[in-house]
Write a structure and sequence with these properties.
With 157 residues, the protein is α+β, with helices and mostly antiparallel strands. It has helices at 5-9, 112-130; strands spanning 14-16, 19-23, 27-33, 43-48, 51-56, 59-65, 76-80, 84-90, 102-104, 107-109. It has a single domain, classed as Immunoglobulin-like (Sandwich). The strands form three sheets. A five-stranded antiparallel sheet has the order 1-2-3-8-7. Strands 4-5-6 form a three-stranded antiparallel sheet, with no helix packed on it. Residues 138-157 are annotated as: Disordered.
């Protein structure tokens, strides 16, 4: 079995003061650097459909309304190597046109170049899913790829 598309093609991260966030068609990933030796009991994380809260050692790190809705009961967080918290949120809208422009409604926006690269990646990921067996991981895309690119689903096969 081949590796998932995002593992072969890499990610397009958006840097933040506390770490980075990135996305695939289905999920949004948040990676937060924390002091070495952090324990799970030092972490307070609340994930809801449109809201995220994260505090480490009593200090708020991240809090606010998410850019778009997620499946609340599928959100998870893990503490890795006692120095990184990874939050995984499942998007409600898993369409290639649903490229989040920021993590929170009014914060952590991707700059225009990063946003463009994120949209390209989601469009290629969509093409990969529509055409299993073809490897799009090294492909370049140009032209109209905004909102997920052209829709070929109505064409006869």
């Amino acid at each position: 079995m081949s590796a998932p598309f995002e593992e072969r093609s890499g990610v397009v991260p958006c840097a933040t003061p506390w770490g980075r966030w990135y996305q695939t068609l289905e999920e949004v990933f948040i990676e937060v650097r924390v002091p070495a030796g952090t324990r799970a009991r030092d972490v307070r994380c609340a994930l809801r459909s449109r809201h995220v809260e994260l505090a480490v050692g009593g200090e708020e790190v991240l809090q606010g309304k998410l850019f778009d809705s997620t499946v609340a009961d599928e959100g998870t967080w893990t503490l890795e190597d006692r120095k990184l918290i990874r939050i995984v949120l499942t998007k409600t809208n898993r369409d290639a046109g649903n490229c989040w422009t920021s993590l929170l409604e009014n914060d952590y926006a991707a700059d225009p170049w990063v946003q463009d690269q994120m949209q390209r990646k989601l469009t290629l990921e969509r093409f990969q899913r529509e055409n299993p067996g073809f490897d799009f991981s090294g492909a370049e895309i140009s032209g109209n790829y905004t909102k997920g690119g052209p829709d070929f689903s109505s064409l006869e096969k």
